[in-house]
């Protein structure tokens, strides 16, 4: 096979966990500034936290550091009220708008629109959309021009493709562009920068690690183009983990091209797999000094007293499959990266109350002033001594209300507005939104319990495992049948019977999903419709089975469903057949397990439920030892 011709101004830098990626970006920018002081540089980060960290390290008017949503919405902001852009918006989202209109008055959004504008039809909506905007939500408001996290990126790509001057403006403005965590970046974003930089003098750098692709944003559609990037540089030294843990990471990755070298050759303690059927408090107590990584599923929310919150968010359309975000994202992210506007605000208020409870009044006032879009300016307008007394009394009252937790979340929000702690403009749209109706009915005590739990330094989630390392990590192996779907124990079983490699597994997944998407599955139900098209589905099933007959991942995850359908064709078996759920859940488990292990600097313990490996216990023990773990069995 001929070598792929490389693009000379685009670079893909493999940067595994612990490899000093942020330092690499910082040093690259500093060196470029020294060499070319008048050239502009753009650095795109995945989170606001990463953005803030890089901003503290680099201070130059020629460097822009921003998250992708923030950067793109500002970059195209000049054009979002232009008639030709609004025409493009209507064209791109016409089908979605008409689909919502067809729901009639059973959809409360339609009723509200009619109340406001007198009627609801496509022409009326066209005439009333005067500007497109990023609504910072997980769902779009198509009638009003408000685009969600996903849709704003998709629409920006459409804008760049239609209006060539946007591409030219981007490449003319920035000589060097760095995109961090490329593997979690939407393919729409990658296309925007690729098409803008192609055949120009600008340079594009993508940094990341495909093993850390755990947010389901990237769909693999950019892979063929990635193969054309220059990949000569990688960050192969692991500055975080002990040599023993690096050895395990290499064995799990199982690809010499991505092996790391430990910066610290000393490994004092061997990582341990602990197989147990004892999950008592005394068992968990031994890991009190460890960062404990959980999947953070429904049961855990119930346990901490926030089950109603989890259920209410789970019922929101914004967090149902195939949405990019889940209830876990909204309920566990206390930073400004939280995808949910209501919970970003609520967690900010919780942060403020926490500062007050610690008597950090100066810090709390500064915080409230910085969050002026949330907090009422009169609340922190302190000029005289009497103002301090009023402020002290008000924050004491706020703290008492929060601690008593007798209100619902809606009542608490209204209390904040009525007593001029917060601006009504930021809360009113959320309090009136039908989507939040059930969330707002939940007791404030559940928000209180959730926030207190998230503040515990020993708690993290496997879904949010990316980040800084910890000396001691305890990874609790769990399955999840809810989004995100994770089949951890199926991954362990696969690991025992096959030589697993991330590159091969992930390429198969992307390829298989592409095949399934090419099939029209709308006729699988009702049964009468299926019977008319059964012959077509049988041909598809036979074709896919033949295509992947020698693929070990297909054999493990899917073949039994194809065998069942081909031997007993019916609509139920067909639906089971043309799915990718098990592949995705097993692959996701692989990545979560690897990334969870990579968080440990020195001590790593994996807790395994003995009952869930009963059918392959001996093989599992042997495989874990071969990977580099010690194995301890504690069962009753």
Automatic annotation (TrEMBL):
GO cellular component: cytosol
Residue intervals of the UvrD-like helicase ATP-binding domain: 1-242
UniProt keyword annotations, A-Z: ATP-binding, Helicase, Hydrolase, Nucleotide-binding
SUPFAM superfamilies xrefs: P-loop containing nucleoside triphosphate hydrolases
Binding site for ATP: 15-22
Any GO MF annotation of the entry: 3'-5' DNA helicase activity
BP GO terms, sorted: recombinational repair
Domain of life: Bacteria
Xref: PANTHER family: DNA 3'-5' HELICASE, UVRD / RECB / PCRA DNA HELICASE FAMILY MEMBER
The protein's name: DNA helicase-2 / ATP-dependent DNA helicase PcrA
Organism of derivation: Eubacterium barkeri (Clostridium barkeri)
């Amino acid at each position: 096979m001929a070598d792929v011709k490389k693009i000379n101004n685009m670079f893909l830098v493999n940067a595994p966990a612990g490899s000093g990626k942020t330092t690499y970006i910082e040093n690259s920018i500093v060196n470029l500034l020294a060499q070319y002081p008048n050239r502009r540089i753009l650095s795109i980060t995945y989170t606001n936290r990463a953005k803030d960290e890089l901003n503290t390290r680099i201070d130059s008017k020629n460097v822009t550091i921003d998250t992708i949503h923030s950067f793109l919405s500002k970059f195209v902001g000049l054009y979002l009220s232009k008639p030709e852009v609004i025409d493009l918006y209507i064209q791109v989202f016409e089908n979605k708008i008409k689909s919502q209109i067809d729901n009639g008055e059973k959809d409360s959004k339609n009723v509200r629109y009619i109340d406001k504008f007198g009627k609801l039809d496509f022409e009326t909506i066209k005439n009333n959309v005067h500007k497109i905007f990023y609504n910072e939500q997980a769902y779009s408001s198509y009638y009003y021009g408000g685009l969600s996290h996903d849709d704003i990126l998709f629409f920006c790509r459409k804008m760049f493709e239609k209006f060539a001057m946007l591409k030219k403006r981007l490449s003319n403005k920035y000589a060097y562009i760095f995109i961090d965590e490329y593997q979690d970046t939407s393919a729409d974003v990658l296309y925007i920068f690729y098409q803008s930089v192609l055949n120009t003098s600008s340079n594009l750098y993508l940094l990341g690690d495909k093993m850390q692709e755990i947010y389901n944003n990237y769909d693999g559609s950019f892979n063929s183009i990635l193969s054309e990037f220059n990949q000569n540089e990688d960050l192969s030294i692991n500055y975080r983990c002990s040599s023993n843990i690096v050895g395990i990471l290499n064995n799990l990755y199982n690809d010499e091209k991505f092996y790391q070298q430990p910066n610290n050759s000393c490994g004092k303690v061997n990582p341990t797999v602990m197989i147990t059927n004892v999950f008592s408090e005394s068992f968990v107590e031994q890991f009190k000094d460890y960062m404990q990584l959980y999947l953070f599923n429904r049961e855990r929310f119930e346990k901490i007293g926030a089950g109603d919150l989890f259920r209410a968010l789970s019922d929101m359309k914004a967090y149902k499959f195939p949405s990019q975000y889940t209830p876990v994202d909204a309920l566990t992210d206390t930073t400004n990266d939280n995808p949910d506007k209501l919970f970003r605000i609520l967690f900010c208020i919780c942060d403020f109350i926490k500062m007050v409870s610690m008597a950090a009044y100066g810090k709390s006032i500064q915080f409230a002033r910085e969050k002026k879009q949330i907090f009422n300016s009169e609340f922190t307008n302190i000029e005289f001594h009497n103002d301090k007394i009023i402020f002290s009394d008000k924050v004491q009252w706020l703290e008492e209300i929060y601690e008593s937790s007798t209100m619902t979340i809606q009542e608490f929000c209204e209390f904040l507005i009525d007593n001029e702690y917060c601006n009504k403009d930021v809360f009113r749209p959320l309090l009136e939104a039908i989507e939040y109706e059930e969330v707002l009915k939940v007791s404030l005590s559940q928000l209180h319990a959730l926030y207190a739990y998230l503040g515990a330094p020993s708690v993290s989630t496997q879904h949010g495992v990316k980040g800084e390392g910890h000396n001691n990590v305890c990874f609790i192996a769990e399955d999840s049948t809810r989004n995100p779907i994770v089949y951890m124990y199926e991954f362990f079983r696969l690991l025992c019977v096959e030589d697993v490699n991330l590159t091969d597994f992930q390429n198969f997944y992307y390829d298989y999903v592409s095949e399934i998407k090419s099939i029209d599955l709308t006729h699988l139900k009702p049964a009468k419709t299926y019977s008319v098209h059964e012959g077509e589905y049988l041909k598809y099933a036979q074709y896919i089975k033949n295509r992947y007959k020698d693929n070990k991942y297909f054999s493990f995850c899917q073949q039994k469903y194809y065998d069942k359908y081909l031997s007993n064709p019916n609509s139920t078996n067909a639906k089971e057949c043309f799915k990718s759920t098990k592949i995705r859940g097993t692959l996701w488990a692989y990545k979560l397990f690897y990334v969870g292990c990579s968080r440990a600097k020195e001590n790593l313990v994996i807790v395994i439920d003995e009952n869930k490996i009963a059918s392959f216990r001996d093989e599992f023990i042997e495989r874990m030892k071969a990977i580099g773990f010690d194995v301890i069995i504690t069962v009753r």
